[in-house]
Request: fold
Amino acid sequence: SRVATQIKDLPFSVNVLTSEFFGDFGMFELNENVVQIGGLTGLGIGGTFNLRGFSSTSQLRDGFLRLGRYGASNIDRLEVIKGPNASGLYGRSSPGGMINFISKQPKKQESQKVEVSYGSYNTRRGLIEATGPIGAAGKTSYIATASEYDRGFNVGIARNHNKEGYFALAHEF
Reply:
């Protein structure tokens, strides 16, 4: 929300889905699975969505207008602000509200993660994630993720194949 305020103290409604939630429910592609937020439908990979009956063509990434694709492997959380109140924070927005994708951030504690998932419709997903400090001083941290997702459908010629990569650096001055 661009403001370091707890959600309970904000003067508008915010729904949040975290990356842990995505993992718990096997949400590998956000565009077809975000049904847990009432009134949000039609989340398209090109930047469109339908919220509370109003169509919008703009989404936010870390509070800034963005266009193009996103991936569940590099999103820390998804914030949905319902109603026209979003324009007070972000400027132009849909009367239905605004969606803000928050990127995963580098951590000072070193960690690695490898996930492999299999499911129906020949669904396969692999994820590799690493984060931690760079150098002895520990003032610079990184995060890197790589993911590959492949899914079939009832129609033999239909297939969804997606490769994602993400890298970010943070430095403490």
Notes: The mean pLDDT is 84. Helices lie at 19-24, 86-90. The chain is about 5% helix and 45% strand.
